[in-house]
Inverse folding.
């Protein structure tokens, strides 16, 4: 955030869909109302190995509580590796539209011809945010920052928040509006300036946005011999509320000196000073003496998520569905709505629509305002990660279309076999019954490789299964989206558990050397437990049980917070010791493989065998709860279901 030097202490905002509340952020985090909360945050991860090394070290020592990464930079894969190995680390995205160093440059994540207004004559980002303000087209900025977020997710980085490198996104009202809109769509807290509108553009805040009181950042005006004194005094002067201290860490060595040659401000020596200060005994003592509570963006994001569309889910779902239906024409509404008690509600599949005709209203048939409301309904049942995964699966249809077109062009002419329509807008929204906070109703979002089902009982309880996600290709191996692995966390978490097993444990876990051709349960309406094979949690060590829990969390965590919590609660009640992990097929990456995780109440299946092991099908099933059957038995007998 180098160039935005409003002053040493600046006003900022963090925004979310949080409803207005009388409690302070401190109180909602469980602290006294007048607490001094501080996020100690490091910028610029990914720009250089030295920056990464210093920042990782500071995170692990607790010298900082948060950091943000620059996705277009050369060392972003190092950050991604750290994020995957440290899933609890508080890592946001430092959205990047500038490249400020003289000889060490980077450009866009998007193809250059898609964002020409963002690049200079050398094909890299400009070195000054003023150039961004003058030249950048808002539509291209939106495309690029979305690409950066999607690239981070594909690499395994689960961002906790967004901010802007060198404040480039804060330079004009149009760019700031794009930034705020994208952050809200991704359900991510964001950092933005707030203060005198004559000095800087102001974010388009609403009554729902929550203020962060101030931020601390060392500027060029801080004397070099007063560096530590500046930070210690800033801590001593903290007021009750939430403050972010922004630091820039690095090791003053040859790599960073070469990268930042001729840059005193935010250069190599500067970053070493920041690193030394946050690791110093005096800094830590100042935090203790001034009763400062160090917090993270992740904590704040969870707090905000608890009152957003992530939950409580039933009310959010009802509101989103009602708004969606209100904006439809009578003809559209007729296609989108069905009786709750009809057979259509359990009519589901994940194959192309040519092979399984679907009912409902497609995204393609909607106007832009209607599409926005449809996406709000999709978000209502999912976490931010779940929503991002769902939309990436839709977008992968474009990749699949290109791959299949290339294969047809290279094959026999005329092309043989079936040709399927691959369209990211060919996803169907269907609503069953009348959405409300009192009735029993349901909705489904379905198309190729995605089938999501949400059932609300009496307006207060919600079930979210079956839930199916698929990905073809599992890994994009060429083209602009090369390296994208939409469902990568599902494979990575399972492999981490498999690789932790010793030889005797693997004998139990690996049930066959040949993977089945697909998930075993397919699209049955009612599934029963599969054969009890694999290694049970009772035979795992403490660390291995934690890996099993992380694997289950990958799937549960797609759902909104209360649905995910209910899934885990059911597992806990039935007993973790009775959960088993089984693997089938090859052990090497890129080869055909399958696994399942099964307990008394649920089943996870994952199969990657089609297209030579580059095509994933995965599903979560609840033996008694699919389509809300257990909730309906307990809560809905005698309750009328509207149309």
């Amino acid at each position: 955030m180098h160039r935005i030097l409003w002053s040493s202490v600046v006003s900022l905002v963090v925004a979310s869909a949080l409803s207005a509340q009388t409690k302070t952020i401190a109180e909602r985090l469980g602290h006294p109302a007048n607490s001094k909360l501080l996020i100690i945050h490091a910028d610029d991860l990914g720009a250089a190995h030295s920056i990464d090394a210093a920042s990782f070290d500071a995170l692990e020592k607790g010298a900082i509580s948060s950091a943000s990464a620059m996705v277009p930079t050369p060392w972003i894969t190092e950050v991604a590796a750290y994020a995957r190995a440290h899933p609890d680390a508080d890592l946001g995205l430092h959205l990047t539209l500038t490249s400020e160093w003289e000889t060490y440059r980077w450009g866009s994540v998007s193809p250059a011809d898609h964002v020409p207004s963002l690049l200079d004559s050398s094909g890299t980002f400009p070195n000054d945010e003023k150039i961004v303000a003058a030249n950048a087209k808002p539509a291209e900025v939106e495309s690029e920052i979305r690409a950066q977020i999607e690239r981070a997710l594909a690499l395994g980085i689960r961002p906790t928040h967004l901010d802007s490198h060198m404040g480039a996104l804060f330079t004009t009202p149009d760019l700031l509006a794009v930034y705020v809109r994208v952050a809200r769509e991704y359900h991510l807290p964001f950092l933005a300036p707030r203060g005198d509108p004559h000095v800087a553009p102001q974010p388009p805040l609403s009554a729902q946005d929550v203020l962060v009181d101030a931020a601390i950042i060392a500027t060029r005006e801080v004397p070099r011999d007063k560096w530590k004194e500046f930070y210690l005094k800033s801590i001593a002067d903290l007021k009750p509320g939430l403050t972010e201290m922004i630091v820039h860490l690095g090791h003053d060595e040859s790599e960073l000196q070469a990268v930042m040659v001729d840059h005193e401000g935010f250069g190599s020596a500067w970053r070493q000073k920041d690193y030394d200060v946050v690791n110093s005994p005096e800094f830590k003592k100042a935090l203790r003496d001034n009763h400062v509570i160090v917090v993270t963006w992740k904590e704040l994001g969870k707090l905000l998520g608890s009152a957003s569309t992530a939950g409580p889910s039933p009310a959010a779902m009802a509101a989103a569905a009602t708004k969606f239906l209100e904006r439809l024409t009578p003809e559209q509404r007729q296609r989108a709505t069905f009786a709750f008690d009809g057979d259509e509600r359990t009519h589901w599949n994940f194959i192309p629509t040519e092979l399984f005709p679907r009912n409902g209203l497609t995204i393609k048939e909607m106007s832009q305002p209607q599409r926005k409301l449809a996406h709000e309904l999709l978000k209502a049942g999912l976490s931010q990660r779940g929503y991002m995964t769902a939309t990436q699966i839709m977008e992968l249809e474009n990749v699949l279309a290109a791959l299949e077109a290339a294969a047809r062009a290279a094959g026999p002419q005329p092309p043989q076999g079936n040709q399927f329509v691959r369209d990211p807008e060919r996803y169907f929204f269907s609503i069953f019954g009348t959405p409300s906070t009192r009735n029993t109703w349901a909705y489904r979002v379905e198309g190729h490789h995605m089938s999501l089902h949400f059932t609300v009982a009496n307006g207060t309880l919600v079930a979210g299964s079956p839930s199916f996600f698929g990905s073809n290709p599992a890994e994009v191996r060429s083209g602009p989206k090369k390296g994208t692995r939409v469902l990568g966390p599902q494979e990575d978490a399972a492999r981490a558990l498999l690789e932790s097993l010793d030889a005797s444990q693997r004998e139990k876990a690996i049930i066959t050397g040949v993977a089945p051709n697909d998930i075993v349960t397919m699209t049955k309406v009612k599934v029963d437990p599969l054969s009890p094979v694999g290694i049970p949690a009772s035979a795992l060590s403490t660390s291995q049980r934690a890996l099993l829990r992380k694997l289950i969390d990958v799937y549960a965590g797609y759902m909104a917070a209360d649905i995910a919590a209910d899934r885990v609660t059911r597992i806990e009640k039935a007993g973790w010791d009775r959960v088993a992990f089984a693997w089938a097929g090859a052990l090497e990456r890129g080869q055909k493989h399958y696994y399942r995780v099964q307990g008394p109440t649920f089943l996870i299946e994952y199969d990657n065998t089609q297209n030579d092991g580059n095509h994933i099908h995965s599903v979560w099933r609840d033996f008694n709860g699919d389509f809300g059957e257990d909730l309906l038995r307990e809560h809905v007998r005698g309750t009328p279901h509207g149309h």
